[in-house]
Amino acid sequence: MGDHQMKLLGVWDSPYVNRVQIVLNLKGISYEYVEEDLKNKSGLLLACNPVYKKVPVLIHDGKPIAESQVIVKYIDEVFAGTGPSVLPVDAYERATACFWAAFVDDKVGSAWYTILFAHEAEKKAAEAARIVSALETLEGAFKYCSGGTAPFFGGDGFGLVDVVLGSYLGWFKVIEKMVGVRVLDATRTPLLAAWGDRFSAADPVKGVLPEDVDKVLEFLQTFL
Ligand SMILES: N[C@@H](CCC(=O)N[C@@H](CS)C(=O)NCC(=O)O)C(=O)O
């Protein structure tokens, strides 16, 4: 990407990091990836995100940007002329996409996080049910956003909601193994199930989302 210096601080199995990687790939922006050890955070991470001390952090020409949705919007704006856009030009459509992207992290993200660290099986099952319920709502949102015919929330290509929700797809399989409940189920949410297959197969996503469920579970054990 010309003269731009892009460095991404991340963790390989983080949905928040993965969505930034997907957008960078989508736009064809090359970047240096630095894997963080969250049990021993680097001085660079602490200096770049002193408020939350979390990944992802994108460092663009020495300037740090934190919070995944903020980073995605930043990339889309700064590299507006490079590759496809994830945010619509129309203000109302943009507001709608931001609303659903916030809904995903609010409902799916919070339940995902609780499942990871809850000890009781009942608690994990209740949170998985919250994800299922959010996905049922998102099935309706998909119908609305895609007009019932387009392949993605963003239309013919990825939009903000696609990359935000799509970044959890690998984890849905992990949750299924942890909790024994099917999260993204074609009988309950057929449009979303088909969307998930399309999303996972797309070029910008290949090699980004965690696919090896046991590897993710093993890695998770190191934090418990
Ligand atoms: N809202 C943040 C969430 C980022 C987040 O939770 N990152 C986790 C990894 S998945 C992290 O860095 N955790 C380290 C910690 O909590 O100390 C975003 O969208 O970027």
TrEMBL record:
<feature type="domain" description="GST N-terminal">
    <location>
        <begin position="4"/>
        <end position="83"/>
    </location>
</feature>
<dbReference type="InterPro" id="IPR004045">
    <property type="entry name" value="Glutathione_S-Trfase_N"/>
</dbReference>
<dbReference type="InterPro" id="IPR010987">
    <property type="entry name" value="Glutathione-S-Trfase_C-like"/>
</dbReference>
<dbReference type="InterPro" id="IPR045074">
    <property type="entry name" value="GST_C_Tau"/>
</dbReference>
<comment type="function">
    <text>Is involved in the conjugation of reduced glutathione to a wide number of exogenous and endogenous hydrophobic electrophiles.</text>
</comment>
<dbReference type="InterPro" id="IPR040079">
    <property type="entry name" value="Glutathione_S-Trfase"/>
</dbReference>
<dbReference type="InterPro" id="IPR045073">
    <property type="entry name" value="Omega/Tau-like"/>
</dbReference>
<feature type="domain" description="GST C-terminal">
    <location>
        <begin position="90"/>
        <end position="224"/>
    </location>
</feature>
<dbReference type="InterPro" id="IPR036249">
    <property type="entry name" value="Thioredoxin-like_sf"/>
</dbReference>
<dbReference type="GO" id="GO:0005829">
    <property type="term" value="C:cytosol"/>
</dbReference>
<dbReference type="Pfam" id="PF13410">
    <property type="entry name" value="GST_C_2"/>
</dbReference>
<keyword id="KW-0963">Cytoplasm</keyword>
<dbReference type="InterPro" id="IPR036282">
    <property type="entry name" value="Glutathione-S-Trfase_C_sf"/>
</dbReference>
<dbReference type="Pfam" id="PF02798">
    <property type="entry name" value="GST_N"/>
</dbReference>
<keyword id="KW-0808">Transferase</keyword>
<protein>
    <recommendedName>
        <fullName>Glutathione S-transferase</fullName>
        <ecNumber>2.5.1.18</ecNumber>
    </recommendedName>
</protein>
<dbReference type="GO" id="GO:0004364">
    <property type="term" value="F:glutathione transferase activity"/>
</dbReference>
<comment type="similarity">
    <text>Belongs to the GST superfamily. Tau family.</text>
</comment>
<dbReference type="GO" id="GO:0006749">
    <property type="term" value="P:glutathione metabolic process"/>
</dbReference>
